[in-house]
Write a structure and sequence with these properties.
heterodimer; A: alpha/beta; three-stranded antiparallel beta sheet; B: alpha/beta; SH3 type barrels; Elongation Factor Tu (Ef-tu), domain 3; 3 domains; five-stranded parallel beta sheet
């Protein structure tokens, strides 16, 4: 690749770290046995899978028997929500989530609603926080599940999970958290949090794609959604992705080992970006909470311009960033998260999400800021909204942008 | 102008080959698909119409094959406002709109070009069968018919302004359809044999009535069929279900062939006539755009085409004081329909065109 690439979309996915890849390799070519087989090669695979399970359990403060591997974070979310809802139908059919969940949770709630469940969707405030009082008021005798994400994938806001969990526990309601974005960025210990279920995905913390896991606290009543095999203690059928789970465990161990340094590095880059952008580009809004957020996440809205043009022009400069979550058709709809925190439709269309990773540098931040300043300036010069704004308020400085 | 071109790719054979031609000619090509319809709608008709996800996948595959960057642009709001809503409103007014003309005017050569320019891309391109040429004498950009009469698409492009023509490339205008398919086959495009799109892209099953009913429920109410002398002949289902010139599907037999000759939305009446009565000698058109010259200041003679599939007919076009024109044909024309466009030609050259407001009938 001879073109300049600045990758700042680590919330979408990360590369696989070399040491993680090394750990995985033998299980593609040498130790390829099916973990369910009784002979040597099968036993070796089984042993490796169980070691991986133990490592992950140790990282997050769980028992190894509480870790279940899945094919993705999305599968873990689907399983948690569907599995709990259907397994606890005798108690009731009321389930609670928040307005800013990932679609892997939200769409399952919509599906369950169509199947006759009653759904409460909690609002969030302008920084993206769920109000614990709202949860307290929403829980009813027939409530079976609360599913609230640990940290938001678009705006990075970290929820007061511990407090929310204690409210649910007090009322005997099962609590699931989608920690796909948080895992590897935040020191998560399930035993300290008290959650009943937690989803994660390896490719968000420098592991391979196609592997996720669901933590299910011992004694939690849950149905299976994948049937047809005895794997994962009969709870999730399908031959184990042996190399994948080994990669996941290796990546998570590395992440937990380097958590402090990694956090410091990301925070420094985020602050540099926010400081420079707000200094050099007027009419910009930082979405999400300024402090209680994922260290590497910066979500910006630029008034008067569309996010779509901005992203395309950044891509032409080699800057790989996104406007929120990646969508199947690759086109951009206004983000439900930004709408939920109260942004108007036209601004929800124009946001930029930068998520830093291990290899990003200060020079890259500066390169992004330089290009952002130029591109935002150009787009605003072409924007009828901006023109009207300037016209209606002749007192304002016509920014520091030069016309093209 | 710079070397960058944004090409609109529908996933069909024409725009795919157009992209390839531009690439070969050395342009810096950026492929885009305008996402004009919501996923919910596409979910019901996954295989057909411009809007479906499969067309995005087709376009993406071609772009990857050509090694050009490819993006999907969200044009849902722009398309709905300028094409779908316009289409429905026109029908409710008893007129028969041409949504492709509106789409070309406001979406492709309007918003898409604007978007390209705002991104520092100086030109756009499409897979239309038409030729854009600069007239060395007048210095104006001309729109000319493609070499292939069957596929010529100039009728739907007459609204292009000089600004748009200067910044637009139509790379396949000089080829015929068979050659374009042949080129697609040679380049190994998987879309080479894809059938031409026929229907209106946002009504994939071609069921206008149901579509209009679904977006304009309260506006559809039954009314009377009358003859040209005003005698009531029966009841119609609602004016949106009829178009001028229609004979079939009137829902009723009259003992002889009857044609829709006019629709009067104000009175909610559909006027039927006997064979011959659906012909008119002229029309009034408004909302004119002229390409070959600024505008006519005296009557001109030209060939005029009153709908996409109509034959061109000799006509005299006289400018009126209010900016409209009055068009008289040498021979009466069938089914002149308010809401459709009339486009004027001098040989291969598109002079301009406008929207038909009313028929002129012999009194």
């Amino acid at each position: 690749m001879d073109r300049k690439i600045v990758y700042v979309d680590h919330a979408a996915t990360t590369y696989v770290k070399p040491e993680v890849f090394e750990a995985m390799k033998p299980f593609f070519t040498d130790f390829y046995g099916n973990p369910s087989s009784i002979y040597y090669l099968g036993r070796e695979s089984k042993k490796a899978v169980e070691e991986a399970r133990q490592k992950i359990a140790d990282c997050i403060g769980a028992q190894s028997s509480e870790i279940f591997f899945t094919g993705s974070g999305t599968e873990a979310d689907n399983w948690a929500v569907r599995g709990i809802a259907f397994a606890n139908i005798k108690k009731g059919k009321h389930i609670i989530t928040s307005a800013i969940e990932h679609h892997a949770v939200l769409e399952v709630f919509q599906y369950l609603q169509s199947e006759g469940f009653e759904v409460t969707i909690l609002p969030v405030d302008e920084n993206g926080f769920v109000n614990p009082e709202d949860l307290k008021n929403a829980i009813r005798p027939d409530t079976t599940l609360v599913s609230i994400m640990f940290a938001n994938n678009e705006i990075g806001t970290i929820q007061p999970i511990k407090e929310l969990v204690s409210i649910a526990r007090e009322k005997g309601v099962i609590f699931h958290t989608d920690a796909v974005q948080a895992m590897g960025n935040v020191d998560i210990k399930v035993n300290e949090l008290g959650v009943d279920l937690l989803s994660m995905s390896a490719h968000k913390f420098y592991g391979p794609k196609g592997v996720g896991a669901l933590y299910i606290k011992k004694g939690t009543r849950i149905n299976s959604i994948m049937l047809g095999g005895a794997q994962e203690s009969r709870r999730r059928a399908g031959t184990e992705n042996v190399a994948g789970v080994i990669g996941m465990a290796a990546a998570l161990e590395l992440a937990y080992k380097n958590l402090d340094n990694y956090n410091k590095h990301l925070k420094a880059l985020s602050n540099r970006l926010i400081d420079k952008v707000t200094e050099r580009i007027p009419y910009v809004r930082i979405n999400g909470d300024r402090d209680i957020r994922l260290p590497g996440n910066v979500n910006l809205s630029f008034n008067f311009i569309e996010g779509e043009s901005l992203l395309l022009m950044l891509d032409m400069k080699g800057i790989q960033a996104s406007s929120g979550s990646a969508c199947t058709s690759g086109s951009l709809d206004p983000s439900h998260v930004l709408l939920a925190i109260g942004l108007p439709h036209e601004i929800a269309h124009g946001s930029l999400r930068v998520t830093f990773g291990e290899k990003n540098t200060e020079e890259e931040v500066d390169y992004i800021v330089d290009n952002l300043e130029e591109i935002v300036g150009k787009l605003r010069m072409m924007s009828p909204l901006y023109e009207d704004f300037v016209k209606n308020d002749p007192g304002i400085k016509v920014t520091n942008h030069k016309a093209i | 102008m710079n070397n960058k071109v944004m090409i609109g790719m529908s996933g069909g054979v024409d725009s795919s080959v157009a992209a390839a031609v531009l690439k070969k000619e050395g342009y810096d090509v950026i492929g885009v698909t305008l996402k004009i319809w919501s996923d919910e709608m596409c979910g019901t008709q996954p295989e057909r119409g411009c809007c479906s996800l499969s067309t995005v996948e087709d376009a993406r595959r071609v772009a990857f094959k050509l090694g050009i960057p490819y993006y999907v642009l969200n044009f849902q709001d722009i398309f709905k406002e300028n094409v779908v809503d316009y289409f429905a409103n026109q029908y409710i007014k008893g007129r028969t709109p041409n949504p492709c003309i509106a789409c070309n005017r406001f979406v492709k050569f309007g918003s898409m070009l604007e978007k390209a320019v705002s991104m520092g891309i100086d030109r756009i391109a499409t897979g239309h069968y038409a030729i854009i040429e600069k007239d060395p004498v007048s210095g104006r950009y001309l729109l000319k018919k493609s070499v292939t009469d069957k596929k010529d698409q100039t009728y739907a492009l007459y609204n292009m302004t000089q600004y748009q023509l200067e910044r637009t490339l139509m790379p396949i205008g000089r080829y015929d359809k068979e050659t374009v398919r042949e080129m697609a086959r040679d380049m190994g495009f998987h879309v080479a044999e894809k059938p031409d799109s026929q229907e209106i892209c946002f009504i994939p099953d071609n069921n206008y009535g149901a579509f209009l009913q679904s977006i304009a429920k309260r506006a559809v109410k039954p009314g009377k069929f009358v003859d040209t002398k005003g005698n009531v002949l029966g009841e119609h289902k609602g004016i949106i279900y009829y178009t001028v010139g229609q004979r079939k599907g009137l829902g009723k037999s009259f003992g002889k062939p009857m044609y829709v000759v006019r629709i009067d939305a104000e009175r909610n009446v559909v006027v039927l006539g006997e064979a011959g009565e659906e012909y008119s000698i002229g029309l009034i058109a408004s909302d004119l755009n002229w390409i070959a010259f600024e505008k006519p200041d005296k009557p001109i003679t030209a060939k005029a085409k009153v709908r996409y599939l109509a034959k061109e007919a000799e006509a005299t076009i006289s400018p009126l004081e209010d900016g409209k024109v009055c068009v008289y044909f040498e021979k009466p024309q069938r089914a002149i329909t308010p809401g459709q466009s009339v486009v004027f030609y001098d040989g291969d050259v598109v002079l301009g065109g406008g929207i038909i407001e009313e028929q002129i009938n012999r009194s």
